[in-house]
Amino acid sequence: MRKLVIGCDHAATELKAIVRDHLIERGFEVIDVGTHTTDSCNYPDYAHALCQKIQSGECELGILICGTGIGMSMAANKHKGIRAACCSDTFSARLTRLHNDANVLCFGARVLGAGLALDLADIFVDTAFEGGKHKTRIDMFVDIENGELKG
């Protein structure tokens, strides 16, 4: 059974529950790092909690949801080893796994509906990294994180 982690801010609690329950029904173990209320909160806290689960190796992939998905993706990408992509279409969700080896999918509860959110989640978790020439580029991301990319 694959283990995923999911998190959201106050704008996305309802959509997060729909996505979480769908993935559980598909047989995934899903760790929910919150939030669990619609009380205003700071989305970087939940992005951080999710990223820690991936950085530790406890989970391979994660899904973050906020109002637009943009804030969550920006916060997640501040973490070493995290490749978060904000997607609102199926083509981008597929290619971000195939070519970018993204390990966090972000999207906005105020941008898309539940049907598309489920499609994006399914595509993201079902698509494997293609490797090849794309691996060289992902290695360059690591070099950038480590301050080692040669110009």
Report on the architecture of this protein:
The structure is a single chain. It is built from six helices and five strands; from the N terminus they run E-H-E-H-E-H-E-H-E-H-H. By secondary structure, the chain is of the alpha/beta class. The mean pLDDT is 97. The protein has helices at residues 13-25, 43-55, 70-76, 90-98, 114-126, 133-145, and strands at 3-8, 29-32, 61-66, 84-86, 104-108. Helix 4 links the parallel strand 4 (84-86) and strand 5 (104-108). Helix 1 (13-25) crosses helix 5 (114-126) and helix 4 (90-98) packs parallel to helix 5 (114-126). Helix content is 45%, strand content 16%. A five-stranded parallel β-sheet has the order 2-1-3-5-4, sandwiched between helices.
Total E-strand runs = 5
| Mass-distribution shape | globular
Number of helices: 6
**SSE arrangement, N to C:** EHEHEHEHEHH
Structural class: alpha/beta
* Gyration radius, rounded: 15 Å
In short:
By secondary structure, the chain is an alpha/beta fold. The protein has helices spanning 13-25, 43-55, 70-76, 90-98, 114-126, 133-145; strands at 3-8, 29-32, 61-66, 84-86, 104-108.
Short key terms for the protein model shown above:
single chain, 151 residues, alpha/beta, five-stranded parallel β-sheet, 5 strands, 16% strand, globular
